[in-house]
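**Protein record**
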Amino acid sequence: MGEEEHAAQAPTPNAPDRSSMTATPSASPVTPSAPFPAENGEAALIRATVEGDERAFATIVEAHHRRVFNFLYQLTRHRHDAEDLTQQTFIKAYRHLPQFDPARPLINWLLTIARHAAINHFRDNKRWTELPPDTAGHEPSPARTAEVRDRTETLWDRARSLLSAREYEVLWLRFAEELSTEETARVVGLTQTHVKVLVFRARRALMKGEA
């Protein structure tokens, strides 16, 4: 069971100012974002938030907002919906933070909450039918950066047109968000074997699409 389902068992901090959770990502929604490094500082921020420090939670939101938004945008393909669901995700995370284990990666927990928010959103709107190469170099030029971004967007657009919603979701978590198989399985609520099968099917479909 996810930590968010045990919120009634511990005191809940007051909800933070919603304005601290509405920052719009500066990059294209389909651009994978750099992972936030797990470090002792994040555990300190979590502890401070639970103790009532809203500035600490604002720092957490700033660090993870883009990744959560990008993931939700991939599920909804609608910027306004993704923004609303991102806000819902952080509000729920704030309320349930006392139950979170700081030894675990916070981003995985946030993506799990985001996914549940997306499922509820689609169910409410009666639209939910199915659960849904390294380019590093030395100081790439703006033209090169734009080329890589365009190529990445084209790849994910093609994947969306060829794959099922669940295959696409798993592929995004594994390779855009760079989660491990185990982490991906936790977010989507599947076994690691099932995740590996979905990744294999997705890759096979993409290779056939290139033929």
Helices lie at 40-50, 54-76, 79-96, 106-124, 142-162, 165-176, 181-188, 192-210. Confidence is low (pLDDT under 50) at residues 1-11, 24-28, 33-39, 128-152.
